[in-house]
Amino acid sequence: MSKDSKEKNSVKDLKKSLFYNKKNAYQILKDDEIKKINKFSEGYKSFLDASKTEREACEFAVEAARDNGFKEYKRGMKLKAGDKIYVNNRGKAVILAVIGTDDISDGLRICAAHIDSPRLDLKQCPVYEDSELALFKTHYYGGIKKYQWTTVPLSLHGVLVKSDGSKITVNIGEDPEDPQFVVNDLLIHLAADQMKKPLMSAIEGEDLNILIGSRPFKSDEGSDLVKLNILNILYEKYGITEEDFLSAELEAVPACKARDIGFDRSMVGGYGHDDRVCAYPALEAILTVEEPEKTSVVVLTDKEETGSEGNTGLQSSYLRYFISDLASDFGVRDTTVFSNSQCMSSDVNAGFDPTYPNVMEKMNCAFLNYGVVITKYTGSRGKSGTSDASAEFTGRIRNLLNKNNVIWQTGELGKVDCGGGGTVAAYIANLNIDTIDVGVPVLSMHAPFEVISKVDVYMAYRAFKVFLED
Ligand code: MN
Ligand code: MN
Hints:
The chain is an alpha/beta fold. The chain contains 11 helices and 23 strands. The chain has helices spanning 3-18, 31-50, 54-67, 199-202, 225-238, 273-287, 318-329, 334-340, 391-403, 425-429, 454-469; strands at 71-72, 84-89, 93-98, 108-114, 119-130, 133-141, 154-161, 167-172, 182-183, 210-213, 248-254, 259-261, 267-270, 295-301, 342-345, 349-350, 372-375, 379-380, 408-410, 420-421, 434-439, 441-442, 450-453. A 9-stranded mixed beta sheet has the order 1-2-3-14-4-15-21-17-19, with helices on both faces. Strands 8-7-11-5-6-10-9 form a 7-stranded antiparallel beta sheet, with helices on one face. Strands 12-13-23 form a 3-stranded antiparallel beta sheet. Helix 2 (31-50) packs across helix 11 and helix 7 (318-329) packs across helix 8. The model has no long low-confidence stretch (mean pLDDT 96).
């Protein structure tokens, strides 16, 4: 070997040992691991199709918990290591816990994901007829690019509560036999003015009206006969009248099923990856956790997309009350439990999209297939609204994931001045709990059809599992 090539070798070695080398997971994974990843994604797709709203995801989680030996928690229950409990918060959020062998005053291991996703909610007085077409008025929920929600087949999910208190559950548009619904858009031929408008205002909130019928009630009398026919159908099917919409929560969501994306089937496309792509692995992690040392907690919360306000969101006290009750069951101070707890705020981050490279800073953003993404801080502008995990806690998580061969990357939500966002991390950190964001990179986040990588969702599951068991 010549002197030159020896030096070249040493530069290569030096680079290998001194540089931070990121690798695509497929360059590392063994065939049997890829099999596990593909199997996991089949379960995930079923979950996505069955859980298009927070209520459906909550019901899915509660059923899965019961099937796996979890009992409904009641304050004052005699609990011991290995016991599995859950709390159903109003059918929209759920807390699952497995009691650990260590004293509860040593703190909890918490994973917190959200199960609400952007969508079109029906207004309280939604039904109207115009020019012999019947439509629903909507009020969008969460951050959406409104133009994306036109000409997409929609299904309708939710509940109506009648004046006698009885509840009707609705799910129309998912079964292949069901009708579906749609928000129409202006034909291109007549869109000269619309096409000149910026995306922000080309489709306005009051334009997101859902087409629900066109056939009039057969009669010579008066107007609104299409609306009358629709209300007559709804009365015959559900026994409801127009007034019952006043106490309803009806959500129009994309009617598509989750599908493999790409010739190589390496990705999954579907509605509501944000944040069910973290909720599902967190749920799977706690369902399979066995006698952990620290008490494991998974919370699947509602209202993240509207700022976590309200009694099913994480700015409310429902998680705090649960931990306080648990602490008092074991005769310890809740503040001690909070202060010693650790949390993975399990939410998505943006994946790098080569069509839109300008909003990303390539050294510090997440890529598909590079594993679960650790987001040390979120926020907007000068990190406004972030909890920013400490170097010490970040180091602990880094070590934990490396030790357990969990493939992971670090990521920030785009370039500093391009926008920003937040998660529930800050609300949990405010309880004096060490908290860091850990989740899955998503393409087309908040669109009716989002894309994630199968490897990344599986690595999220592994990350949550080793964290709960640590
Ligand atoms: Mn999210
Ligand atoms: Mn979101």
